[in-house]
Amino acid sequence: MSYMQVIGKRAKEAKKSIAYLSQEEKTAALLAVADALEEKEAEIMTGNRLDVEAAKAAGMKSSLIDRMYLDEARIAAMAEGLREISLLEDPVGAFDEVKVRPNGLRIGKKRVPLGVVGIIYESRPNVTADAFGLCFKTNNVAVLRGSSDAINSNKAITSAIKLGLNRCKISQDGIILVEDTSYEVADEMMKLNEYLDVLIPRGGAGLINRVVENSTVPTIETGTGNCHVFVDRFADQEMAVNIIENAKTQRLGVCNACESLVIDREIASQVLPKIVARLAGHGIEIRGDEEARKISPELVKATADDWGSEYLDGIISVKIVGDVHEGIAHINEYNTGHSETIVTNHLEHADLFQERVDAAAVYVNASTRFTDGCEFGYGAEIGISTQKLHARGPMGLAALTTTKFVIFGHGQIRK
Q1: pLDDT at 122 (0 to 100)
Q2: Pick from 337, 339, 313, 317: which is nearest to 256 by CA?
Q3: CA distances (Å), 314 to each of 51, 161, 205, 285, in order?
Q4: Distance from first CA to last CA of the chain, Å, rounded?
Q5: What distances in angstroms separate CA 411 from CA 154, 208, 283, 405, one per listed residue?
Q6: Nearest-angstrom CA–CA distance, 259 and 312
Q7: Would you say residue 2 has pLDDT above 80?
Q8: Which pLDDT score is estimated for 24?
Q9: 61 near 44, Cβ under 8 Å?
């Protein structure tokens, strides 16, 4: 058997026991794993330092190194995230609906695990703990393939998770880390239909497109984030500047950061200089169209490629449009279906924007940075889905389950 077939067989075997753990067993195990993560803090930080040093030596940009970096606070946050997951309502076993047919059959839809969930992700080692926690809470086995950039961090985190599972006498194959980070093994993982029930990519556009285009395992697409803030002519300008500053600069290397600004021509000459001044304090490079550069000549000239770019860096594009309709059309042409915001005090424009912008999350007068499972009150997320089937937006526990029909009768036969 190949390397991935061996892993797949282990996962399929572990599914037999993980699928039937009780809520009490899962809660105890999640708490034990959280304790183990804190207990193994030194080992995790040692592994992470190796990864960070290698990334710096390879010239990785600072925004991506920040996503990879772990310290005491971030490890404590991973542990706390598992404790929070343990307190969330368990969807497994719940009935979505029950109806009684005229012949007396009672038909219900019951929430059940997906089975074995494969996840291919980049750089962010906290995903290892979050993904395990969400999969385990929903009685799924997690097969995780992180990138080579964070392999030492992921090994140390996985080791701590297995320690917690072992202490609760639960199969340590509830989480399996694919330690071979070669492209060949990733490609094999995408074809592992016999063992994986679903595959979720988390990372940049290149990774996501590769998985979606090549996987024969059913895939949930967690999308890249070319997120826009549209400043309407009826916007509160100070509010707009504050929202843009937060959406762009709070963290650069995340999918819900603002990458593109769209500004109504009516207000552009007033608000754009304020935005430029605020972002300049953060060292942000602003790339503008011809009209924006006439207002603020210090802007870099934008190209057509800028309108659709997810920079994950200190760069943002600016497009001037004639009105809210033109703004919506521009956003729908170039967005990635992630998160979009309008800043306006005009109720009709707000309603129009939320109705017509095609994205998983559409805001009025708030930062795109809130598109997050915890911020939405769902707990940690497995990713933010930008597709429309099965799940859309932050994917919490329910998105890691499916349903089956259960039917109760008393001797009925079909005539």
Answers
A1: 86
A2: 339
A3: 23, 35, 18, 6
A4: 49
A5: 54, 50, 73, 18
A6: 8
A7: yes
A8: 97
A9: no
Secondary structure (H, E, C), 316-349: EEEEEECCHHHHHHHHHHHCCCCEEEEECCCHHH
User: Side chain identity at 294, as an amino acid letter?
Assistant: K
Expressed in percent and rounded to 5, the helix, strand and coil fractions of the chain are 45, 20, 35
State pLDDT tens for residues 167-205: 999 999 999 999 999 999 999 999 999 999 999 998 777
Structural contact between residues 198 and 114, judged by C-beta atoms closer than 8 angstroms: yes
The structure tokens 């979720």 sit at 200
Distances (CA, A) of 209 to 186, 204, 224, 384: 13, 9, 10, 15
**How far from chain centre, in Å, is Cα 353?**
24
SS3 (DSSP) at 300: strand
pTM score, two decimals? Answer: 0.82
Q: Report which secondary-structure segment, H or E, holds 249.
A: helix 237-249
List the strands of the sheet with 141-145, edge to edge: 175-177, 141-145, 116-121, 198-202
Question: What b/e string do you get for 168-194 counting C-beta neighbours within 10 Å, with b at 16 or more?
Answer: bebbbbbbbbbebeeeebbebbbebee
Q: Pairing between strand 141-145 and 175-177?
A: parallel
Q: What's the mean pLDDT when you consider all of the chain?
A: 94
φ, ψ for residue 207, nearest 5 deg: -65, -50
- State how far Cα 109 lies from the chain centre: 27
Give the model confidence (pLDDT) of 119-171 as tens digits.
999 888 999 999 999 999 999 999 999 999 999 999 999 999 999 999 999 99
Mean pLDDT score, 16-34: 97
Is there a contact between 292 and 273 (Cβ–Cβ < 8 Å)? no
Q: How far apart are CA 106 and CA 108, in angstroms?
A: 7
Rounded to whole angstroms, how far apart are CA atoms 211 and 218?
A: 10
Neighbours of 395 (CB within 10 A): 22
Asked if residue 288 has pLDDT above 90, the reply is: yes
